[in-house]
Amino acid sequence: MKLRILGCSGGIGEGGHTTALLLDEDILIDAGTGVGQLGLNALLKIDHVFVTHSHLDHIAFIPFLVDTAGCQRVKPLTVHALPATLQCLKQHVFNGHIWPDFSIIPNARQPYMRYQPLVVGESIMLDGRKITPLPTHHVVPSIGYQLDSGQASLVFTGDTSAHEPLWEAINRIDNLRYLIIESAFSNAKRDIALHAKHLYPAMLADGLNKLRHDAEIYITHLRQDEADVTMREIIACVTRGHPRRLLSGHIFEF
């Protein structure tokens, strides 16, 4: 497996792009503004989008992807997500008002897009690649993903707060090589992080103390206005591993 980071910022501006990860050439994990860095030929190769949750910074470019590539595809783009997330997309995005309903365009038998509900803990196999939804805790229904090549695994948590079932699931992975986990706010904004159900450095450190694997740790969803401060706090309070800042363009092979 080869995972390319298209976007991993907590916002836009100054080169920042919101969350989008390209797995090999045909799978997106989330579809934030980072998708806009891809050319048309690359967009046409994407067959699946696995969504962590319904927030705009993680789904913003699904409508543009379908609209741009749909008429040139030979099969529908499949959007995988929790049922609650799919319902949000149907009701609030692909509703004929915000964007056309591409699940019935050009017709219901041969649409440009189809929905595939996921269940936490139930894996999907795609050409030998195993993708498993993991339990997370956010202000809307959310999941992370374990990407397993058979030789090694990468975990992407998406947006989450402290959640014991997540650490239990991660610790059951016997071939974990990489962990990409968020810290959306600095310690000074602890109250905002708690309200928004995001991690901040001290809470992240508590979670990482539960990790029983010697994995490489990367921090995503940093806000541009305090990314450096947040990373310094993480390095100061995390007592195990050497967390690094995730950057657009970073490539993981496993």
TrEMBL record:
InterPro entries: Metallo-B-lactamas (IPR001279), Pdiesterase2 (IPR000396), RibonucZ/Hydroxyglut_hydro (IPR036866). CDD domains: class_II_PDE_MBL-fold. Gene3D superfamilies: Ribonuclease Z/Hydroxyacylglutathione hydrolase-like. It comes from the Bacteria. GO terms for molecular function: 3',5'-cyclic-AMP phosphodiesterase activity. Residues 16-221 form the Metallo-beta-lactamase domain. Transmembrane segments: none annotated. GO terms for biological process: cAMP catabolic process. This is Ribonuclease BN, tRNA processing enzyme. It comes from Nitrosomonas halophila.
